[in-house]
Amino acid sequence: MPDLPLSQIERVDVRKAWPHEALDFTRWLAEDENFQALADALHFFEAGVEATEAAVGDFSADIIARDREGLILIENQLAQTDHTHLGQILTYLAGLDEPARVVWISTKVREEHRAAIDWLNAHTPSDFAFFAVELELFRISGGPAAPHYHVVAQPNEWTRHVSARSKQISSTALTDTQETYKALWGVLNDQLMEHWTGFRRRQPLPQTWMSYPIGRAGFQLTAIASVRDRSAAVELYCHRDPSKTGFDQLLEGKAAFEDAFGQPLRWDRMEERAAWRVRIDREVDITDQSAWPDLAKWYRQHLEAFDRTFRAAVADIDLGAGLPDDTSDDA
Fold first, then answer.
1. Measured between alpha carbons, how far is 330 from 242 in angstroms, rounded to an integer?
2. Over the stretch 69-128, which tens digit does the pLDDT of each residue have?
3. Domains of the chain as residue ranges with CATH
4. Residues 6 or more apart from 234 whose CB is under 8 A from it?
5. What is residue 164's three-state secondary structure?
6. Quick one: which of 147, 239, 300, 325 has the fewest CB in 10 Å?
């Protein structure tokens, strides 16, 4: 008999883990630790989520992410692939103003849809790439379930491209400014891990912001740094509210929110975009590493204050039609 105990693998219905596609699975996948597992399966380098339920033209993409090669668009479907979701993917592409990698996640990829992804990879410009991924959920001996991503379709040259790109990235240093941002977010990670109960470590990225969930798809808390402007900010950000309905609902309670927060906030409708934000800023030399411990504490205190002040209100915002009731296998 082997010294190592053996057991059986049990397949688990994904709907037991994520009953609602948008509110449960998309939100879960957008968390950094979970998203990195998908990024690793697809060989995306230093990828980070930018937005969930983000506007692309008149529609919304489940997840918008970005890595050192550019834009990543994720379409989730906790069911067998269907023509509706394929059509949504094509519609998203028409609304993009830059190349992208498009990832279609489902529980089962039908043969005709795998063939469609292959056709797109063969007949669209080389700076677009399409992936079909089957999501599986397993557990052993009744233990915690673990997701597995089976890549069913991808560009023919992807493996070769990944190898070449990996060598290129390993030999291409980040700029000094990018290194500064990445190191700063590492310090903030440590501050949040030590002091913010329930915080999950997020991969520091060489960019000007780090985003954190606030309990509802389409909304996030963001820590922002600017070397050029010598400034830092923390904000509540809504990605998709072109009518500003949610902004106006919160603005009605402006005095009460600012009283609870403890100081005035900057309320920005961002009229030229489908987004809006509520923000607080400070002046600081981001390149001065001796100031980082105090800056990380400032970020943490204000992220906590935004979460404490706005979490319940964000959950109660009525955006009209809102998200679809995603409980059927056709959602």
1. 27
2. 778 999 999 999 999 999 888 887 776 667 889 999 999 999 999 999 999 988 888 788
3. 9-171 (3.40.1350.10), 176-316 (3.30.1460)
4. 221, 222, 223, 224, 279, 280, 299, 302, 303, 306
5. helix
6. 325
In the block, residue with structure tokens 């985003």: 211
Q: Exposed, middle or buried, 330 (CB in 10 Å: 0-12/13-18/19+)?
A: exposed
The rounded distance, in Å, linking the Cα atoms of 177 and 329 is 46
Residue 15 to residues 78, 143, 327, Cα–Cα distance (Å) = 7, 17, 9
Query: Is pTM beyond 0.70 here?
Result: no
Q: Tokens in use for 318?
A: 């009525």
Secondary structure letter of residue 45 according to DSSP: S
Query: Would you state the torsion angle of the CA atoms of residues 50, 56, 59, 64, taken in this order, to the nearest 10 degrees?
Result: -20
- Distance CA(126)–CA(142), nearest Å, equals 44
